[in-house]
Every structure is written in structure tokens, then in C-alpha cells.
Design brief:
single chain, about 180 residues, alpha+beta, Peptide Deformylase, 3 helices, binds zinc ion
């Protein structure tokens, strides 16, 4: 699987709801896990691999695969706790890492691979990854959340990446 880079228009689209929980979806998700681990990521959203649907995978790398999730049609229903700063990166924005402010916890609802509904309260690193990946489904990238001063500092690097991402999008086409 090819990871789409900022500048690729698919990363800016609002993804559509998943309605079919079939074997093709399972196959795609398996491929996404391989891709995520290959690049040493902790989360990967469908639009990042050229699929404009509302799902993502994550693995906060905890014992017993506790932080490993397949998240389909997610909703964030409540934000909990204080806003906290934490360094984020993104496989679609290589080599840029910045502190981003987000709520510490969230209450979420989503579907698993078989379409069953799951309600959970997440905190810390899991809540962080979930919010970052959820944003991908809305066409939002973490660099959008940088304060103006920080944004100016990474602007040159972003412009270069965006040019690369646009070119790559033309080569890859639509899925
Ligand atoms: Zn990302």
C-alpha cells in the first residue's frame, strides 16, 4: 500500500460511512496493519492509503495488544479532562513533529470489523491517537492545529511536501 502525502486531495476530503462489513474490508485492514508497522506508525486512517471511507486502525503498542484497535464509523461524543500538549507526527507528513494541544480523554462510539457497536472511554496516548486518526476522516491534518507562529516555521517544509504529495496523487490516481 502507498501512503498518501499531504497535498493529495484525498487527505482533504470528508470520508464516507462504511456500510459493508465484508471480506474485502478485512483484507484492506490487514494490509493497513502491515503498512502501519512497516513505517513504524501507531495509527493509519483509510484516506491515507487512498480510500475515502470512515475507518482507521491504531496500535498504541501496549502489553497484550491492549491498544490495538480497528475503528469503523467513529464518533467522539465527549471530550474529557484538560487540554494537553503532546508531540505528534503523521505518516502523511513525513519528518515533521510538533506539539499539538488536544483534550486528554474522550468518550467514543464506533463499530468493529463485524459491525458491532463499541462504546469506550479513552485516555492518554490512546485518546491522542484516536483524535488524530478521527481528524483524518474529516480531512483535517495535525499541522492545521498548529499555532500561527509554529505554522510559519514549518511552512517551507510543508510546501515541499505538498508539491510531492500532489505529484504522487496524480501517479496513484483514485482507488
Ligand atoms: Zn496522521
Amino acid at each position: 500500500m502507498e501512503v498518501r502525502i499531504i497535498g493529495d486531495p484525498i487527505l482533504r476530503k470528508r470520508a464516507k460511512k462504511v456500510v459493508e462489513f465484508n471480506s474485502k474490508l478485512k483484507e484492506i485492514i490487514n494490509d493497513m496493519f502491515s503498512t502501519m508497522y512497516l513505517y513504524d506508525g501507531v495509527g493509519l486512517a483509510a484516506p491515507q492509503v487512498g480510500i475515502s471511507l470512515r475507518f482507521f486502525i491504531m496500535d498504541s503498542r501496549e502489553d497484550n495488544d491492549k491498544g490495538k484497535k480497528i475503528v469503523i464509523n467513529p464518533e467522539i461524543n465527549e471530550f474529557l479532562g484538560e487540554n494537553v500538549l503532546y508531540e505528534e507526527g503523521c505518516l502523511s507528513i513525513p519528518d515533521i513533529f510538533e506539539n499539538i494541544e488536544r483534550p486528554e480523554g474522550i468518550k467514543v462510539r464506533y463499530q468493529d470489523i463485524d459491525g458491532n457497536f463499541i462504546e469506550e472511554e479513552l485516555h492518554g496516548y490512546q485518546a491522542r491517537i484516536f483524535q488524530h486518526e478521527f481528524d483524518h476522516l474529516e480531512g483535517i491534518l495535525f499541522t492545521d492545529k498548529l499555532p500561527i507562529i509554529k505554522k510559519t516555521m514549518v511552512k517551507k517544509d510543508l510546501i515541499k511536501l505538498i508539491e510531492k504529495g500532489k505529484k504522487r496523487a496524480l501517479e496513484l490516481g483514485d482507488v
